[in-house]
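Subject: Protein record for review, amino acid sequence with backbone structure tokens
Concerning: The relation between a protein's sequence and the shape of its backbone.
How to read it: Take the token row as a discrete description of the fold.
Enclosed: The protein record, placed directly beneath this head.
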Amino acid sequence: MRQYLDLCKHILENGTVKEDRTGTGTISVFGYQMRFDLQQGFPLLTTKKTAFRLIASELLWFLKGDTNVKTLIEDRNPIWDEWGFQRYVESDEYDGPDMSDFGRRSQKDEQFAVIYREQMDIYKKRILSDEQFAEKYGDLGPIYGRQWRSWASPEGSVDQIQNLIDGLKRNPDSRRHIVSAWNPAEVEDMALPPCHALFQFYVADGKLSCQLYQRSADVFLGVPFNIASYALLVHLIAKECGYDVGEFIHTIGDGHIYSNHVEQVKEQLSREPRPLPTLRIEDGKSIFDMTYEDIKVEGYDPHPKIKAPIAV
């Protein structure tokens, strides 16, 4: 994963200090590309432990067209908790302690952090126990899963993933194997506008490759997940269509390191990468029916994890 470490180093050496939506502040570059040969191993970051279970369960959640955090909470996956929680605490129905700017406040004030964790726990338990509450405050709007599997059109919904699979089988040389999550008509209704906005598949010599365009990339926390998620997607689609895997090409618009992640990035850069693991996917299931138990990473031996706050 030298490609990822080179990106981190490039941002620290050449980035511009910028403000951002979260108020945290970033060091940012615009326009960067990484290439990963998936024949050389599965690109799961080794310079810090990266939770593959969370990556896989989130991707399967997207592929099923789901947009409600209830499914992820049931799977013990907290990736989207903050965005569902934010929708609830900003609603008229919420009458608990002040949760404004909870992301930054919980990092700076331990007393508030305890209250925040208590309120988050209450929220998650209610999501699991109250169906009406989950429907109202667990749904994140028309985010990735909705756009991938049920893009709204005047003629009815469009299943972009099924169309992608059908097209790759029928006409592999097409230049139209594209899936877009960026729907301008619905961006304002999403809990978070899509960061990984558009991807394109390409077949050559019996190998399937994918290029992702990511408009906004949280390089320390998000990008390792994005790399592994789309590499897994290539493997899944290749298996579904009968191809070998080729490359994953990751094209980034605004690639940034948050100001409160700089020391963590430097620690990671001091570590030597280890050999990449391999991926094993059980046979006999459609990608739409797979569970996390059907997907295994073997030979993963990373350095210890490095904690950092998420910017909401």
In short: The chain has two domains: 2-67+142-298, 68-140. The chain has eleven helices and eight strands.
